[in-house]
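subagent[fold] <- orchestrator: predict structure for attached chain, return tokens only, no commentary.
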Amino acid sequence: MVQYTIAQAPEVILTVSGRDSAKAREKAMDQLIELMDEGKLPITLSEGFSPDRFIEVKEPELKEVSEDKLIEAVQVLSSLVTLKEKVDRSRTEALNVREKIDILFQDRPISEEEIATLKDGFKVLKTFAQASQRYQAAKAQAEEARAVLDIALKSPESE
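subagent[fold] -> orchestrator:
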């Protein structure tokens, strides 16, 4: 089956058997003339019309996912899990460091031990910030990977 429409009335779909060919376009032309004769065509073709001006309507095909794309999608999702785990783990540590930062704003002297703890804590904050940024960037890529996986799981081959 092949479907055609015309630029002047894209809502009009003419369906004929077979593939796109001169013969199929002639059959569609016959249908178009029939619609015009019955007054069912929402426009007039005052300039005339020829079969070669038909626009073939193609149905969106279910995308097939190649094995490479599927493997890549799984790897992207696996990386997202690792990044999420690192962000979650480092978030708790970063919150603990955040509580200790208040020491800097107090009017009392800071011990060497507190300074060393803060300096180590800043490394934790940096690790958390970097992991969080990488995780946020990876989420967008993982959305595409999830869509690829969804297509693969819906394909007839997997049923």
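orchestrator: received. Logging for downstream: The two ends are 26 Å apart (CA to CA). The longest helix spans residues 112-154.
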